[in-house]
Design goal:
The chain has two domains: 54-136 and 247-290, D-Maltodextrin-Binding Protein, domain 2, CATH 3.40.190; 138-241, 3-Layer(aba) Sandwich (D-Maltodextrin-Binding Protein, domain 2). With 292 residues, the chain is of the alpha/beta class. Helix content is 41%, strand content 22%.
């Protein structure tokens, strides 16, 4: 009897053990489903990364000094999540058409009279968002070493675009070489010269090309950015230079409607900083003058 009872108890214990094992196996199955859920995590991580990607701001610029000045704020803007991408251009037309057509977000190469004339003649919708600096235009020696030595019929190279040619003529007038008609204004051409005692002859070429023909003329009037690209120091090498109060302020330009773009405003703040002012004054020594 005792043996039978012992056997019965052992059998009961065995059954309970098997039941317990079976219960563990069944209860483990639902826990496998959550393990498959993390497959969606990469999508969440990718979304987070996308949200943290920097805002790209494309700016067209002349190489000197504009691109050099922009380079000073690349790291500053990067800290604000803005990727400043600078594209250098060698002319005064494409940087404006590129902004008008949306290929560039902004440009930095021109002064206000040129911008106004460009909009008027080409029907573009470009606006200034900030004044940054002035590049005093200068007169440089070619075949004649000084203004005092200019002979009758001397040749003078000047930019051929309306605003820069007028600017050159105003500088020549300031040196007493010519006199313009009273109503000539900021779009004067050689046809607006009222007095020309030396009978100066004008060679009109694209602004960027003026430095290339200095040796072919007696004197040349050159925009400072192109003068510096050609190796001149406008302060030391020019025969005469504009006053620092010139109205030809170089500006940051965008297409109308983008003036308040946060990235554009961040660029304005960075360009008008004490650090940029110090850079301009130290590097260019008066050839480029900050206006902020």
């Amino acid at each position: 009897m005792t043996k039978k009872l012992t056997a019965l108890v052992l059998a009961l214990i065995l059954c309970l053990a098997l039941a317990a094992c079976g219960g563990s196996s069944n209860s483990a199955q639902p826990t496998e489903a959550p393990e498959a859920q993390p497959t969606e995590a990469p999508a969440e991580e990718e979304t987070a990364e996308t949200a943290d990607e920097p805002v790209v701001l494309k700016v067209a610029a002349s190489s000197v000094p504009h691109a050099e000045i922009l380079e000073q704020v690349v790291d500053v803007l990067a800290q604000e999540g803005i990727d400043l991408q600078i594209t250098e251009y060698g002319d005064y037309v494409v940087p404006n058409t590129a902004v008008e057509e949306g290929e560039e977000d902004a440009n930095y190469f021109q002064h206000i009279p040129y911008l106004d004339e460009f909009n008027a003649t080409r029907g573009t919708h470009l606006v200034s968002v900030a004044g940054i600096h002035i590049e005093p235009m200068g007169i440089y020696a070619g075949k004649t070493a000084s203004l005092e030595e200019l002979a009758e019929g001397a040749t003078v190279a000047v930019p051929n675009d309306v605003t820069n040619e007028a600017r050159a003529l105003l500088l020549l007038q300031a040196q007493g070489l010519i006199t313009l008609k009273e109503d000539a204004g900021l779009d004067a051409t050689p046809n607006d010269i009222a007095e020309n005692e030396l009978g100066l002859q004008f060679t009109e070429v694209e602004a960027a090309m003026v430095p290339n023909i200095v040796s072919e003329v007696d004197i040349a009037v050159i925009n400072s950015n192109y003068a510096m690209e050609a190796g001149y120091n406008p302060v030391e090498d020019s025969l005469a230079i504009e006053d620092a109060d010139s109205p030809y302020v170089n500006v940051l330009v965008v297409k109308e409607g983008r003036e308040d773009d946060p990235a554009v405003q961040a660029l304005v703040e960075a360009l008008q900083s004490d650090a940029v002012r110090e850079f301009i004054e130290t590097k260019y020594q008066g050839a480029v003058v900050p206006v902020f």
